[in-house]
Structure of RNA polymerase subunit sigma-70:
Amino acid sequence: MSSPSDPVRAAAARTARTAHGRLVAVLAAADGDLEQAEDALADAFEQALRRWPETGVPDNPEGWLITVARNRQRDRRRSAAHRTSVALPTEQTTPSPPGWPGAALSPRDPFDDLDPDALPDRRLALLFVCAHPAIDETIRTPLMLQTVLGFDAAEVATAFAVAPATMAQRLVRAKRRIRDARIPFTVPAREALPGRLGPVLEAVYGCFALGREGTGRADMVHEAHHLAVTVAALLDGEPEAWGLAALITLALAREPARGPGYVPLDEQDTARWDTALIAEGEEYLRRAGTPRPGRFQLEAAVQAVHCARAATGHTDWPALCTLYRALRLLAPTLGTRVALAGAVGRVDGPSAGLRLLDEVGDGAASFQPAWAVRAHLLAAAGHVPEALEAYRRAGELATDPAVREFLTRRARAVEHPDRG
């Protein structure tokens, strides 16, 4: 067997990145068995890496993979162990991929009848599928991030600040419950979409955050932007959908100034920010306007305050304190509480920020941003040894090498200010 060539690996990686969620959805449509669908698809990718160097990358890689995966599903259903417990469905056949004997299943694609005006993106459609009310609400968003958007359990665990093994176990249990409960993998009617919107928005936001955090999935930043704007336009009367679209668009506007390397927000050159995206994000935020803003609208407002520095030349830290306090009441996440401590440290002094940071609780012990903020506040307060230890811990927890390098430079500057 020849080793896969670079073009073959690139084609397989590109297909996995762009089509993994849709392919899993099609394979799981018949029985809702996500684990088995993922196993079949993984086997198909393995076979592709073996066969494509010899036969060439097919014109339709997705079709090739789905046919091979369905063959595996067929073989499993026909196995002796499976025949004793599950009745065989009626099968239709289609030709196998080149070089493969036998026939392959061709079950109806659950997205074939999808109204393109209702749900114009198949990946978005599957997100709403995974938001089925029968699925435990605590696992819906992690399930979307893994099954639809292609992040592995360890990456999803990072987004939820839990141990990778814990998240992997939760995902396995969720998939088995979906299979055992026969939860249908069907696209909901348009009138049911608003009721499933919350976890979908969380998944899109998680996709954006993970794409920016050194996971090697920078392409997912733009995927998240596309999904957020698409769902906002689809559900035009949902303020939080527009809030998320504004949040991601405004954050994306600053991407050109984040690197190479890592440049913190308050040190970024505003001339490199994308003014067209800032205007677009501000328009989305206006569309989201409501007397009682939700979490994503408040977070978008935070982004708008930061982006205003391009016009004013300074950051309105008191406004940020007000927004973060509102967020702490509405969605007291670790990130919100840590960000509030950092903003209060800017306005009321580092000691006030440190007091708030101490109130965050045990969750901060393994939360990298908490250590980074603590290091900055301790350094500002003149507590050099404690600041150096906080910088060291923040660097250990950082997943992005560029962030680790930045923290190391900051620690050196604190330890040796005369060399700066």
User: Anything to note?
Assistant: Residues 88-119 have pLDDT under 50 and may be disordered.
